[in-house]
């Protein structure tokens, strides 16, 4: 048996209308899972993701929900359970970022980032996990964090704090859900080519070139390049992984110092011994 095969399982992906969420949804469908796709009610990309899942021969149910409406999340989970049946996999992927200096972050902006990136992860997981336990499902929960859960990035104090909080939440839930056979892990991408940063207040090309120079692999990830780690955490292949973090960052966290830029060029001839 292929331990990555997800035939017969149902996976919920939040933020599934575009970017990483769409890549995660189609990768899960490609491995055999049926999908429940959640995104903002006006997210037009949801239909496109659903169509891509259908093309892979799997079913996709679509739910429009603002995840910042914390008090509605248990009802959402209950509705999904009633309509889609038991959930086996939950991917908390939806996230939001706003580039703001720390002294310009308003309470509204702080709360929006925390509600979407942290509160929604907790309260959706809280209810979905209760359903998994009641259904006797050895579930898989994957929280999409960021390299910013581990190192700071200027202009993103709220985002950084929210992602770091999700990392410890991941460990906390892993410990509490382990007796039920449910695993909880996080996947921390580095720089991925998605629309997340939205409108830029500065020269986007210069910004991306500066970032690329800090990435040992020399380029942003394509969303698909994060799906291998997701399939590991979502499948039987990851049965002994819980409370863990997989960093998919092209080497960014491994290379915090700029020394490589000042070293002599790479020697291409083999020395004689
Ligand atoms: N792109 C990157 O470089 C990068 C790096 C590290 C981590 N991440 C994380 O990966 C995840 C996905 O990011 P992405 O780059 O695909 O972003 P994206 O902006 O392209 O997609 C995020 C999706 O989440 C949805 N969403 C946002 N707020 C929502 C809300 N309140 N309710 C429901 N849905 C909501 C959006 O509509 C969108 O479809 C996020 O958690 C992000 O923090 C991204």
List keywords for this structure.
273 residues; 37% helix; Rossmann fold; alpha/beta; globular; 7 helices; 7-stranded parallel sheet
What's a quick, concise take on this entry?
The chain has 273 residues and is of the alpha/beta class. It has a single domain (10-262), classed as Rossmann fold (3-Layer(aba) Sandwich). Helices cover 37% and strands 13% of the residues.
Folded structure, characterized:
This protein has 273 residues and is α/β, with parallel strands linked by helices. The protein has a single domain, classed as NAD(P)-binding Rossmann-like Domain (Rossmann fold). The chain is built from seven helices and seven strands; from the N terminus they run βαβαβαβαβαβααβ. It has a seven-stranded parallel sheet with strand order 3-2-1-4-5-6-7, sandwiched between helices. Helix 1 packs parallel to helix 2. The radius of gyration is 19 Å and the shape is globular. The protein binds nicotinamide-adenine-dinucleotide. The site of nicotinamide-adenine-dinucleotide has 25 residues, from helix 1. The site of nicotinamide-adenine-dinucleotide (NAD) has 25 residues, from helix 1.
């Amino acid at each position: 048996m292929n331990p990555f095969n997800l035939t017969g399982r149902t996976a919920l992906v939040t933020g599934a209308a575009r970017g990483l969420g769409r890549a995660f949804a189609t990768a899960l469908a490609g491995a055999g899972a049926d999908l429940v796709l959640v995104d903002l009610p006006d997210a037009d990309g949801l239909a496109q993701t659903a169509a891509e899942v259908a093309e892979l021969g799997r079913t996709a149910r679509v739910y429009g929900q603002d995840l910042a409406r914390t008090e509605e999340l248990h009802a959402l989970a209950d509705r999904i359970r009633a309509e889609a049946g038991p959930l086996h996999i939950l991917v908390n992927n939806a996230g939001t970022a706003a580039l703001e200096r720390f002294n310009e972050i308003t309470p509204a902006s702080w709360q929006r980032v925390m509600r979407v990136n942290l509160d929604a992860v907790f309260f959706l997981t809280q209810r979905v996990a209760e359903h998994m336990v009641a259904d006797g499902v050895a579930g898989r929960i994957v929280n999409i964090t960021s390299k910013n859960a581990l190192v700071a990035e200027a202009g993103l104090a709220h985002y950084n704090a929210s992602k770091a909080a999700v990392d410890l939440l991941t460990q906390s839930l892993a410990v509490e859900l382990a007796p039920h056979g449910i695993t909880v892990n996080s996947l921390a991408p580095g720089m991925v080519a998605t629309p997340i940063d939205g409108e830029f207040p500065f020269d986007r090309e210069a910004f991306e070139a500066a970032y690329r120079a800090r990435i040992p692999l020399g380029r942003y990830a394509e969303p698909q390049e994060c799906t291998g780690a997701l399939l590991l955490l979502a499948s039987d292949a990851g049965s002994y992984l819980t409370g863990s973090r997989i960093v998919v960052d092209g080497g960014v966290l491994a290379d915090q110092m700029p020394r490589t830029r000042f070293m002599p060029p790479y020697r291409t001839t083999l020395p004689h011994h």
